[in-house]
Known about the structure:
Largest sheet of chain A: 22 strands, antiparallel, barrel
Strand order of the largest sheet of chain B: 2-3
Largest sheet of chain B: 2 strands, antiparallel
Largest interface: A-B, 57 and 58 residues
Oligomer: heterodimer
Distance between the termini of chain B: 88 Å
Strand content of chain B: 5-15%
Structural class of chain B: mainly alpha
Radius of gyration of chain B: 26 Å
Radius of gyration of chain A: 36 Å
Number of strands of chain B: 9
Structural class of chain A: mainly beta
Amino acid sequence: MYGTKFSYQTELVDGIQVTLKTPLSKTEPVESVLKKILYPNGFLFLYVQENYFTLVRDNRVKEGNSSEDTRNIPEPNYRTITGIITDDKRKPVAGATVMPEGAGQRQAVFTSSDGRFTLRLLQKADALVVSYVGMVPRKIPLGSNNVVNVSLDQEQNMLEEVAVLSNGYTKLPKDRLTGAASLITAEDIKEVPAINILEKLEGITPGMQVDLRKNTIRIRGVNSFGANTPQSPLIVIDGFPVMETDDKRANLSDMTFSSSGSSVLNRYNPEDIESITVLKDGAATSIWGAKAANGVIVIETKKGRNGPPTINVGANLSVSAPADLNQLKTMNSAQYIDLERELKALGFVTDNVTKPSWSPFNSNAPFGEALEWMFRVDRGTATAEQRDAALARLSAIDNKSQIRDLLMQQAVSQQYNLSISGGSNKSTYYLSTNYTKDIPVFKKNLGESFFINTSITNKLFNDRINLSLGMNYNYSSSVNNQAGVNAIGGNNMGLRPYELLQDENGNNISRSIRFRDEVAADFASKGYLPWTYSALDDLNATDNVSRSNRLRFNMNIDTKIVDGITFAISGALQRNLEDTENVSDPNSYYVRNLVNYGTTVSGTTGKLIYGVPNGGVLGLSNYDGWEYNIRGQVNVNKNIGRFVNLTFLAGTEMRQTKYHSSTQTRYGFNADTYSNLTVNPTVNYATVDGYSSSLGNSDVLRKNINRALSYYSNAALSFAGSKYVLSGSVRFDDFTLTGAARNQRAKPLWSTGFKWNTLSEKFMQNVNWLSGLAFRVTYGVGGTLPQSSGNVVVLNTSTDNLTNEQTAYISSPANNQISWEKVKTFNLGTDISVFRNRLSFNFDVYNKKTSDILYSLPYNPTYGWTYLQFNSASMKSHGIDLGVKAELIKQRDYSWTTLFNFSYNTNEVTDDRFKKVTTFNLVSSSTPTVGLPTDYMYAYRWAGLDAKGQSQIYNKAGEIVSAATGNNLITADDLVYQGRTTAPYFGAFNNDFRYRNFNLGVRISYSMGNVLRRPSVQNYPTYTPYSGTIGSQSDLANRWRQPGDEAITNVPGLQYITDNSLNRYINSDLLTISGSYIRLQQISLGYNAPADILKGTPFKSANVSGSVRNLGLIWRKNKDGVDPSYVFTNNYNNLPPAKAFFLSINASF
Amino acid sequence: MKQIKYTTWACVLLIIMGTSCRKYVEVDQFSSRTLRYTSDYQLLMNNRSTFESSYILPMITNDDMATVTVGHQNSLGSEQKAAYVWAAEYYTGTQSDVGWNNLYNQIYVCNEVLYGVMGSESGTTEAKLSVYAEALVQRAYAYLSLVNQYGEIYNPATAATQIGIPMPTTPDLYQPLNRSNLQVVYSQIIKDIEEAIPNLPNVGANNGHVAKVSAYALLSRCYLYMRNFQKAGEYADQALLIQSSLNNLADYVGKTSTFPTKLKDPEVLLSKTSAGQFRSEINPELIALFGTGDLRLTLFTSLNYSGIPGRAYIRGNFTFEGIYTGLNVPEVLLNRAEVYARAGDVTNTLSLLNKLRKARYSAAAYQDLVITDPAALLPAVINERRREFMGTGLRWFDQRRLNLDPGLAKVQTRTFAGQDYTLPIGSNRYIFPVNQTILDLNPEIQQSPR
């Protein structure tokens, strides 16, 4: 019968061959077939549940062996034994077999759902045998006691759990899978009690690099450097890809401060995930064809199980301290004032009151308070003593505590889950709901989401047809306010270290940031709006809300056509609705500045003329997208002869994605009446400084449609059990690609693989310490469809804002040499497990070659095109994935499990048209270069400062080159190669300790071998008069000030500064630091309530766990105290995330 | 039998799902589409950012500007320095020749339109012919502009052997790019414009569109450069019949920001703008040509403007729409005047010149020009052209063709960075060099004679 399952001890059937008198009748019951096979060989089969049998050795005394036996028929021994069977966690085991030793199967009984059994002994028995799938059978001697309680141990090494992986189209047992793929189970996911699913996936499997900061996942590095080529893996949920892989629209708040990120994966409730399969090599991914070149992540959601209803409830709470602002490497107030003093002394800033420059309004830009005091003395409005007193007062101020108290808060995330599941023979159900609330570090920011998930399966028409339905709904909203981020940022809303947010009376301090105080006051006296800014006031004046609704339905109908052949039709419908509302209150600085700047005073009437309506600004955007998939598929699972098994599937599917979106800005908005004024955004208005400006039309309308049609097939032949497995797959994709002919759009992608399970070989029979040894070799081609070129003209349309005519330009010409990008992957892998699976290794070596990368190359402009895209560039990459799992200690009461992942990946551009840049520009170049990885970095060779405090570098001959030397005299050869900016080596080291019901988890991640530039000085003035903000990095305090300082510092001085000097310092090897680190990611402690405690309560299980995340670095290579994961150009992003404390409670009943 | 039936059904279903829909994926997208409908082609011709851009090099090589300050000379870009002294090569290294690139891009788009519009869908024959005609004239404009920069000076006697320019007339991206001779280039230009005229409206929907008036004006310019003066005059008349209004500069004294924008300017016949600016001091020789009260000098130039030493041309800064280099009424008028002058027609020449001058002078200072000697007519017209074309680069094209007029042809000299440079009459340096990177990609183009 199709679907019959067996479990048996690994060594049990080794070396035993049976001869079946085939053909078997299709109508013959399984039991009778089993009897024929097993009984003559001394085996028994035990019925577990429908279509599920356990095979055991027949330990009974052979009947009818001799006449003596017949004489020893035991006397009837009527006796009733009762008891309860539990597992090692003291949970009752339902369905366990309890059998008197030596008796036949007919005398066995099964435990009920509460683990209890009642056995009526008909014959005398010395012992009871208790067995259950996945547990060690136990023999209990029978004394006179009529109550026997038995606890069974979980046993993975004896009864091999057959891991089943899904590639989205079919499920395959791991031993038949030739490709490189990893399975992540719900248990694995649960071990990281984070709210963001990407945090859960970090380091969980080799080859997968999770970047929490950028919300990205890369599988085995990058495969292309083409401009529009996607780099993210394809994400498949319940058989169908999610609507978009890269979320470009809804990046709502910075990841550093919001714990639930905006990655696509976070649109699914992590509690609903049953398993995640990561497909890595060509053989594993090519079934997904043209979108699979970057790997595939296949997610299966939970389904109901046959049994009484189970209710699961859970609550998670995560709290993290406000970010530690002392980690920002900034100058203190005294150092900052000292810099301002030097800027003034050297003439970088001049008093714009007494010395106006050419533009009357530029000269009115305000100074910081310290500079203002210094200028007051020059103007004669203050004495030197007054100035010194004021500066001393300012030097003592540190505004960090105000920023922390008034703009930041404790980040708190809450998550609540509820699920109900169960089912009967004919149908199962799973319902779940989840609510998450996420309060990030900066005030007035908030994220909320809500999930509902339903999954129902049904068997119809005498079990001929399986029907399953799924529905998934997700609502999320976020509120975003930038006032806090701006306050510690580098623009003019950023605070100088001595600028406070509130005065001693608790009043908010407003500052002029565009014009000097008296100029702003003058405007105000004419009736202009106040032209000052306060971060605290702005917290309440802007309100940016984004909301999204996502719905996903899927359905699958499969039916058995004949034995071993099923046919399935399935489909999915996804719909995403998103809207964003950005309200800028009339009191917000943005609106006041916009209105004021567009307001002039009438020369005749003296009245104000408003160019911009006096009122709020409302930005609206909408997105409405939907996608359907329909698939028809035939599955074949047949034994051909005695040794060959064929699994085969073939199918076709179609997909359509359609969306429309709009963005618009409304002016004169009144939130109370929810109305706005009509404005012609193209009309010019006069501005305060005498120019003319217009609001500009920022409205966007978009609509798009894409379709795909695919045929695919996948086959695996396994010989002699699964000793040899040969697999192959082919897929043919046809996409909407405007204008391209079919032969350009649709090309077959294929793969093949072979696996050798050596343990099944005769010569391995005596190697007892080895419990698994398999070798895999695969080769496959994956693709990426060109998105921006074709062999016909493609037009992009827009509107001419002067003529109001519709216009178009040719975005790509008819280029008949356009095709796919192709990634060819060769993978060699081995899976080894030893000492009864206590130690297992998965090791893969791969080599990838990408050809036909679509890249824009120079073309003869005489044809009308200066650049033209060609599929011609190429690159290669290779790497290693190693996963080690060790159960170092394994005892009934305590255990220690270790997981170690190591990944290596590097790449190289192989197209020799990408010549190395020969000028100094190489230092900041990111253009692909032959022989170098895609993410290379070069630097100047630092030679210290000269006597004027300016940069010196070495050229290739080792001679010192001064900053006065022009860049044209520096060539690429004078630069030094630093390395790659992405880590080639990365992985994780996770340990789980268990003592009785307690679990302790320690997760460590590491990343090695990359380099990065340490930001040292920014916004450093290089010209006079300097206007704009000055950086506040602490390195600025170490700048060269006078001759002799060059001996103690490397930071160029202000006095003789030039652009070249500054740039050579910033891009020198002095500031190159290693990105290598080892990070203590998490420590968690969990407790599972034992069964005896729960006895008498309604709970089936209960556990509580707590963890601490973001514990910081254990080791880093750089000596500068920099956390390499959090180095960016903006000040606030330098902050590593604060420690987060996590508490989780789960119960089921 | 039952099993076979099921299997057959399943296979049939799969096949239906799969094969019925080869066309399934071929849907039109909304913002990115192929050239299919007549309106698609119309949209291409509506695009001003494609067709408005013209050149920059003639604005440097002509005698409108004369940079003398060493500091200013040093501030020029390397290609500007090279063009200023008529060097053998202008653009070097990775620099691109923006004039060449823009004009050939226009030619590509026109070729694409000409290739496909007549076979497009959902358009009347009339609509198709109108788009077709517009593309013909725009392409002719680009060719005429290119051939007068990178081709030899047209000589009616030897045109068939003179070096012209590459002249792709189809959108093929792989065709050879050998230069056509001047005879071929000019006859193609004339043939195209003449073919287009019947299908064009008298005036366009706006100055960005080609119309009969601009086609006539272009023919007039073309024939003038070919020294076919009679035809140049005839077509100038045709254009002036449709549009001959002039802006009275006196109306804008003190309020230059109210100057009509290029699309609404009644003087403009076809809007074209320079591809960048050559910011330099105006040649004193040109300044000396302006009479008292000539508002072109007082309005369009300014002393010490934004770091430029001496007197700078600032017309482009009134509306910030670039420097107008396209066809306009004054040019047509002056074409006509030149033809009259060459014919010795005193009355008509002066009538046209004075019509223009009246619109250029302040009312108080204006006096009619009086000339009695027919031989003095042509120099007067040429000087008027110099004044009127100041800063637009159009002067370069006059300088080229005047090489063939004994008496008007003259040796040009320049001093730059302490060195003297000479451009002899009829020199090959009147022909612009082709960017080496272009020659590297298609050597068959061959460098211009140096």
